[in-house]
Write a structure and sequence with these properties.
The protein has one domain (9-145): Nucleoside Triphosphate Pyrophosphohydrolase (Alpha-Beta Complex), CATH 3.90.79. The protein is 22% helix and 37% strand. The protein is built from three helices and eight strands; from the N terminus they run ββββαβββααβ. α2 packs antiparallel against α3. It is globular and about 45 Å long.
């Protein structure tokens, strides 16, 4: 196998921050569409580190990851996109506000709104997010122990 035989993969994280049955959603300034906090992982960043960073950047609140919703693999013409979707708690007294220049609003949305958004055209990148949210609604709860994160100095 040569280097050119390998697929190019982008790795991202999405975060289902929940409180009392509601989900923290962010509205994109550019499109007005809604999504969960998330984005691409930075070099040398683990999925859980990325989850914490993305929620801090987009909503300004610290989270406590407690499970996975799933790990999603989406093939592309010249590679793939892999997304780790994490379930997380937030302090009941945490106050959030948009921190990222791409975020217009941050709001709690109940499960009925999430169901509506999946089919209404309200979601940012629904081809990805729809699957994540359907799994969240179904109660997907994969132990974090499935995700074994390592940091090794010799890895390149």
């Amino acid at each position: 196998m040569t280097q050119s035989d390998r697929i190019e993969a982008s790795v991202s994280v999405g975060v289902c921050v929940e409180r009392r049955g509601s989900l923290l959603m962010v509205q994109k300034k550019e499109t007005g569409l809604w999504g969960i906090p998330g984005g691409h992982l930075l070099p040398e960043e683990t999925p859980l580190q990325g989850a914490r960073r993305e929620v801090l950047e987009e909503a300004g609140i610290p989270i406590i990851p407690f499970a996975l919703v799933g790990i999603y693999y989406f093939p592309k013409k010249k590679g793939a996109s892999i997304c780790f979707v994490v379930r997380a708690y937030v302090s009941p007294t945490a106050a959030f506000s948009p921190q990222d220049i791409e975020v217009k609003k941050v709001e709690w949305k109940d499960a009925s709104w999430v169901r509506y958004a999946i089919t209404s055209g309200e979601l940012y990148r629904p081809e990805y997010l729809g699957h994540n949210l359907m799994d969240w609604l179904s109660g997907a709860l994969i132990p974090l122990t499935l995700l074994r994160e390592f940091s090794v100095g010799w890895a390149e």
